[in-house]
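Practice record 12: protein with 6-O-phosphono-beta-D-glucopyranose.
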Amino acid sequence: MLQELNQRFAIGEQLKFVSHPSGLVQGKIDTPKCSGSFFLLGAHIAEFQPKSQHQPILFMSKEAVYEVGKPIRGGIPICFPWFGPNKSDSSAPAHGTVRTVVWDVQETKLTDSSVLVTLGLRSAPYRLSLTVVFGETLDVTMLVRNETATEQTCEVALHTYFQLGDARQASIIGLERTEFRDQLTGLIHPPTGAAIQFTEETDRVYRGGVPSVTIKDPANSRSIHVRPRNSQSTVVWNPWIAKSQRMSDFGDDEFERMCCVETANVAPHNWVIDAGNSQSIGFEISANGESQS
Ligand code: BG6
């Protein structure tokens, strides 16, 4: 399989398919602009680091499990066609079904020294494709087509884990004027007018689209910018102390070095996709030093 993948889709030294120590197939990217990697399992983007940065942009847990049928803790898991627990079947997996199955490679190409990769999955009643451009920025687009003759309702979240120098010093800017649902209490809160800071377990669904979200990370002397497309929800999550201890695939102190800012369309902003139609969601991530922000 690896040999065939490399014959069809490798791009010189810039994109190669390798066997990860777990046995999973991993795409590895190394260009003058960035390094990165992804797994076919879940179309999971695991690493991205522009050559201008000294630290990875994406957080990966040291306790992550790499096994078909299980989600990978860190990077960018894809939550689809539901977010969180399934509303009508409590035995169904959290965050949907597509993050734990193996996707296909559909296309790879080099454009302007950036590597473009498209992965695909048929997951009835949908056909999904994820196009990722690894360049100076990371650009991700997920396209969902409803292949049936009836309307379909679904949720999607690009569940991005960002690496932080120190979550206690970090702040999230761009959601000050957006109401949110606190997932821990179920309560809806009006806009706070203030940047988000992490001082406890934080699990919020912000309701309404925003043009950009900035993650200020003074401990790493940098800011990360997320520019969402076709997204009406942003999920902000940090498990903090007790929940970190409860998660078997996450280190007890790893909450200090990460946060999730998820570009999403989740309730009450679910997608309703007409018969035979498609919807897309995406974002661009870039980073720069604090002095230039
Ligand atoms: C977040 C949710 O998006 O994902 C949290 O808002 C959840 O409630 C977290 O705990 C992690 O989910 P999972 O299924 O990957 O452990």
